[in-house]
Amino acid sequence: MARASGKSNLVAGENVWVQVDTLMTHDVCGPGTIGVFKREFGQNAKVWDAKKIVIIPDHYIFTSDSLSNRNVDILRTFSKEQGLPYFYDVIDDENGNWQFDSSQGLLKRQYGSRYAGVCHAALPQKGHLRPGEILFGTDSHTCMAGAFNQFATGIGNTDAGFVMGTGKLLIKVPETMHFRLEGKLQPGVMAKDIILHVIGEIGFDGATYRAMQFDGEGASDLSMDDRMTVANMAIEAGGKNGIFEYDEKTKSLVEERTSLNGTKSEYEPVERDNNESFIYDSTIDLTKLEPTVACHPDPGNRKTAREMTDMKLDRAYIGSCTGGKTSDFIAFAEIIRGQEVRIDTFGVPATPEIVNDLQTTEWEGKSVWNILTDAGVRMTENAGCSACLGGPVDTFGRMNEGGMKCISATNRNFPGRMGSKESEVYLASPATVAASALAGHVADPRDYLN
Ligand code: SF4
After folding, report:
1. Against a cut of 0.90, is the pTM above it?
2. Half-sphere exposure in the Cβ direction for 422 (13 Å, CA)
3. I need a surface site. Which of 24, 39, 123, 295 has the fewest CB within 10 A?
4. Ligand 1 pocket mutation pick from 88, 139, 351 by most atoms within 8 angstroms of CB
């Protein structure tokens, strides 16, 4: 933040103007952001830097709701008008209109070649995340990009409209909470369990307007996917951002993705301050963590899966930016493989690239995708946010009835999050979701490892 504001150093609590490296928006907040931008800067105003704006429709896409479809058209018109190179349209025809065709069902893909899927998973895949940069996005889970050693946080449409016109934003430097990770996760325990453990410890508002710094040898051992899972849920504790250190894993993924996509490849990572000071300091021994569940009605309502095995479930769901990555589906499939789910189970990969990974990765001659569908999992090729945040009533996997209980690999479980306000969502790792889908009640995945 000091670098982005042209200062040699900053202290927590200071308000500074930072230069923005990337602004991301999507179909839900993009039209509102564009409205603010046009109202404040003029109908014919140009954005501050077309190459620094990334627009990723992903939320309410595969629905017949005409206003949701129209949001994608608003983004297309604006991107054309402004000459934005990074608009990941749902359709290939830049003069067309997006309309979901429900007669084709919800499972078969209906997007074109540029569609990118869930914004937070698409940003790294498409080469838009670089260490040491400032990323703002009109979505609270923008903090996921902190896995890449950058300051990334969600902002509202008004701020985003201002950034669109000026490329800068006034922001308060957060205090930092320190989470030192030691030891190794045991089989059946995943990165999701780390962050559910942390939020259970500090509460769903325990990190309000604070940075959550994760480091230590346990953090270095985590894959980039796992770091993304942890950073993604910083906001579920109220955190301003989550952040990891830069290392060889970060470097190799950033270099691979920027070169694959021809995006900007220069960057300057940030290191920990010599005199770092923390408002909170904790050490977590990963070896001791157990499969964890965040119970209805908030992400801080923590129990172990073992303590919950009496609770019957109606539904299981794997998907979202947090839990819909290739590695999440692989962990899920390792448990499901060769068995049958007992409850309705929905699978929504976060991006088209992940759909492709699952359809082309084979175990003993069968794709992971087919292993899952043979086990009774309803897999959709229409990668996106889907029922992670409910959405229109025809959204795949949405909980339209009250009283339903769903175990989900997603990241948020406040009442109504996945549909009906009377339904209940229990957050867990992909492994715990898999074991529970097989059992029909909350289950500890360590009993299902094979
Ligand atoms: S998948 Fe869920 S949490 Fe992630 S961006 Fe979409 S709605 Fe938000």
Report:
1. yes
2. 5
3. 39
4. 139
Max alpha carbon distance in the chain (Å)? 61
3-state secondary structure of 246: coil
The CATH number, out of the four listed (3.30.499.10, 2.60.300.12, 3.30.420.10, 3.40.50.300), of the domain defined by the range 295-447: 3.30.499.10
Which regions of the chain carry the CATH code 3.30.499.10? 13-171, 295-447
Q: Please tell me the chain's helix, strand, coil percentages from 3-state DSSP, rounded to the nearest 5.
A: 35, 20, 45
**319 near 350, Cβ under 8 Å?**
yes
CA angle 238, 241, 242 (to 5 degrees): 105
Pocket (CB within 6 angstroms of ligand 1): 59, 118-120, 139, 141, 320-321, 385, 388-389, 410-411
Would you state the structure tokens that stand for residue 223, as one six-digit string?
A: 């894959």
pLDDT digits (tens, 9 = 90+) for 280-339: 999 999 999 999 999 999 999 999 999 999 999 999 999 999 999 999 999 999 999 999
Atom of ligand 1 nearest to the CA of 388: 2
Fold of 13-171: Aconitase; domain 3 (3.30.499)
Which residue lies with its CA nearest to atom 2 of ligand 1?
Answer: 388
List the structure tokens of 4. Answer: 């982005």
- Atom number, ligand 1, closest to the C-alpha of residue 120: 5
Q: How far does residue 205's CA lie from ligand 1's centre (Å)? A: 19
What is the distance, to the nearest Å, from the Cα of residue 52 to the centroid of all Cα atoms in its chain?
A: 20
Which tokens in the block code for residue 241? 């951002």
